[in-house]
């Protein structure tokens, strides 16, 4: 039961980050601003269960620590979101950085917790004893749109926040 929940959480968190990328528009002038905007949009898309927007945020050659391709990640996310009526993400963007010598790539470190109720602060996260994950995400810009190319995650102690 525990491993199924952890897998579900990790998948939903990845989906949230993917959705964020789909919302990237041309209004922001820097890769950091675009990635931050995408993360916010992804969080909203996951919470609303909008898998179409989520899929559009993933690069065609997306892969992560548990899914070798975009189709596998989307299948897992679909199944997990179907099982849970309420999904709320609490995200903290620790850093967003351009990849050296490239104007079409960026990376981000994002902490994500998922619960059935909204979380407004780190204190609330700790009091709910929610699991917290650190995501290292690679972004690429293709045809003017930013997309998630890869991600890695691990469970961390909320004290890191």
Describe the structure.
By secondary structure, this protein is of the alpha+beta class. The protein has one domain: Nuclear Transport Factor 2, Chain: A. It is 42% helix and 32% strand. The protein contains five helices and five strands, in the order αααβαββαββ. It has a five-stranded mixed β-sheet with strand order 1-5-4-3-2. A hairpin with a 2-residue loop joins strand 4 and strand 5. Helix 1 packs across helix 2. The longest helix has 21 residues. The two termini are 27 Å apart.
| CA radius of gyration | 15 Å
| Whole-number count of domains | 1
State the total count of DSSP E strands.
5
List the uncertain runs: 16-26
CATH architecture: Roll
Task: Order the strands across the largest sheet as they lie in space.
Answer: 1-5-4-3-2
Which CATH first-tier class would you pick?
Alpha Beta
Distance between the first and last residues' Cα: 27 Å
Q: What structural class do you assign from the helix and strand content?
A: alpha+beta
The run of helices and strands is HHHEHEEHEE
Number of helices: 5
State the helical fraction.
40-55%
Shape, per Cα inertia axes: globular
CATH topology-level name: Nuclear Transport Factor 2, Chain: A
Mean pLDDT: 83
- Largest sheet composition: 5 strands, mixed
Strand composition percent:
25-35%
């Amino acid at each position: 039961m525990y491993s199924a929940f952890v897998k579900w959480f990790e998948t939903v968190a990845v989906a949230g980050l993917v959705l964020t990328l789909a919302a990237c528009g041309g209004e922001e002038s820097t890769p950091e601003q675009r990635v931050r905007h995408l993360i916010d949009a992804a969080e909203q898309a996951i919470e609303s269960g909008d898998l179409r927007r989520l899929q559009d945020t993933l690069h065609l050659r997306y892969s992560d620590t548990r899914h070798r391709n975009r189709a596998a990640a989307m299948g897992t996310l679909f199944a997990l979101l179907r099982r849970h009526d309420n999904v709320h993400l609490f995200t903290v963007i620790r850093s967003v950085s351009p990849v050296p010598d490239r104007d079409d790539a960026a990376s981000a470190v994002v902490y994500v917790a998922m619960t059935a109720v909204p979380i407004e602060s780190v204190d609330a996260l700790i009091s709910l004893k929610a699991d917290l994950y650190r995501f290292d995400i690679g972004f690429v810009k293709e045809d003017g749109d930013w997309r998630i190319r890869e991600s890695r995650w691990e469970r961390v102690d909320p004290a890191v926040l």
